[in-house]
Specification:
By secondary structure, the chain is of the alpha+beta class. The protein has 11 helices and 9 strands. α1 packs antiparallel against α4 (about 150-200), α4 runs parallel beside α5 and α5 (about 215-265) runs antiparallel to α6.
């Protein structure tokens, strides 16, 4: 992010340097040229006075001697041109012949003096020429022309430009050098807050932002964020405790009620009475299973998310889950097919682990699908990589998120679910019409949706061709494979069939 800020400021700094630098260059060029022009104009005025005296007296020896000495000292030839075009003083080289100098000479014979000249730039090769009339107005008797070389002037301009550029670039460089630690100081709490927000979004409600770094405004923002997370954590904890306490408190009275109804069996002689008693016992059993499922769901919801640095590779997940999948499909008389994953592929793990999610999906397929085979496969969603970059701006935690996402699919070839049933399947306690008499609570898929979405993933149910159901669990990629982790002996199951 610091680099992006510096890059964003570069056009402004370039425009600033260009604006100030160009203005400075123009001022230096004009000032240096004008200074030399004024010096040469002063010389030309003095030579015009000498030329006027020489023309009046008819003796040009003094004029010739001084102009020759001037040329020898400064390398600037001087011509004195009379009204008839003859040379009062000839430096031994022809008078410059170009349109500009001719116009200046004509204006000088008309009594006009030039008070400025064109700017001499470092790339200008033409000499600086000064034209001064001898006499004034209608009494002009000659014209003095000085041709001054510009080598020294151009060198002086270059030196001043170099000095000005150094004086301009040094503070700009100091600004850029100071901007890097300054933006680091300002953006460090922003990056930390972004990282902590991602952790909280992933279910880690114990994550807190540091409040001792950065400007006071950002420290206040971090404190407010921590207070917000504290409030959310307390609210969720109260809800979990309430559900767990309610289930615990109701479980014992319900067990006593079931026992009391069962104890009435010896006194139920009529068929209708016995049927009503059995129905009451069955309802009590189902209600007990529901309470057990609520307790299990509360336990899963309270699980801390698995950190990316501790996430297993998908191969380790499959290795840990395969014994359970084989047992579940074997008990149901189904064939199991597993596509071995890439050993380096790591997906972000939901609370309770990806093994528990896949175990529940395989159990559902084995118990409810009326299928002959179950397939567990995987894929990497390369098409999501650019969208993932845009969503995160590649400014997330370095070395944490990969470029894209991975998908694990559990597919069966059974009777499947209709489109409306697939839409309703994520609801809590929902069960398909043809599964109403099958043991279970209808919480499994709902909790899978919740724990997967808590870490930025999605769960999608699709129809399998030609028959059956395909469940796709899509999770963000973790770019850095973790160190070798021993597979668990048994992951925590999602609530499906309570014990007892």
């Amino acid at each position: 992010m610091r680099r992006r800020i510096v890059v964003a400021l570069l056009p402004v700094l370039i425009l600033l340097v260009a604006g100030v630098g160009l203005s400075y260059a123009v001022v230096v060029g004009e000032r240096s040229t004008q200074q030399v022009f004024i010096d040469r104009s002063g010389d030309a005025v003095r030579f015009a006075t000498l030329a006027e005296a020489a023309i009046t007296s008819g003796d040009s020896s003094r004029l010739d001697a001084e102009l020759d000495a001037y040329e020898e000292l400064y390398g600037s030839p001087v011509w004195v041109i009379g009204l008839d075009g003859s040379l009062v003083h000839d430096p031994g080289r022809p008078v410059p012949a170009d349109e500009k100098i001719d116009k200046k000479i004509q204006r000088a014979f008309a009594g006009s003096r030039a008070v400025e000249t064109s700017v001499v730039w470092p790339w200008t090769r033409a000499p600086l020429r000064v034209v001064e009339p001898v006499g004034r107005d209608s009494q002009v008797t000659a014209v003095v022309v000085i041709e001054a070389p510009t080598d020294g002037l151009r060198q002086t301009t270059v030196r001043q430009w170099t000095l000005g550029a150094a004086m301009l670039l040094v503070p700009v460089g100091a600004l850029l050098a100071g901007l890097w630690p300054l933006t680091r100081w300002i953006l460090r709490p922003v990056r930390d807050l972004e990282r902590i927000a991602a952790d909280v979004r992933g279910g880690d409600l114990n994550a807190r932002a540091a409040v001792e770094h950065g400007p006071s405004e950002l420290r206040g923002l971090a404190s407010s964020f921590n207070a917000m997370v504290d409030t959310v954590q307390r609210s969720l904890e109260r809800q979990r405790v309430f559900v767990a306490d309610a289930a615990h408190q109701l479980r014992n009275p319900l067990a006593s009620l079931r026992l009391s109804v069962e104890n009435l069996r010896p006194w139920l002689h009529e068929a209708e009475a016995r049927e009503a008693g059995e129905e009451a016992v069955s309802e009590a059993v189902e209600m007990g299973e529901m309470f057990e499922a609520m307790l299990a769901a509360t336990a899963v919801a309270s699980e801390e998310r698995v950190r990316d640095s501790e996430a297993w590779t998908l191969r380790q997940v499959f290795a840990a889950g395969r014994p359970h999948w084989e047992q579940a499909t074997s008990d149901a008389g189904l064939a199991l097919h597993v596509v071995e994953p890439d050993p380096e592929l790591v997906l972000r793990q939901p609370p309770g682990g990806l093994v528990a999610v896949l175990n529940e999906l395989v159990d559902n397929a084995a118990r409810l699908a009326d299928a002959t085979a179950v397939t567990v496969a995987w894929s990497v969603d390369h098409g999501e990589r650019e969208r993932e970059r845009e969503t995160r701006g590649r400014a997330g935690r370095a070395g944490t998120l990969g470029d894209g996402s991975g998908t694990v699919t559990v597919t069966d070839d059974g009777r499947g679910l209709s489109e409306s049933e697939r839409r309703a399947a994520r609801g809590r306690f929902w069960r398909a019409q043809h599964h109403q008499n099958t043991p279970g609570t209808g919480l499994g898929l709902a909790i899978i949706h919740d724990v997967v979405e808590d870490v930025g993933g999605t769960v999608r149910l699709e129809a399998n061709a030609p028959t059956g159901l395909r469940v796709l669990v899509r999770l963000p990629l973790v770019s850095e494979p973790p160190g070798a982790q021993p597979p668990p002996t048994q992951p925590r199951p999602l609530p499906r069939r309570p014990p007892g």
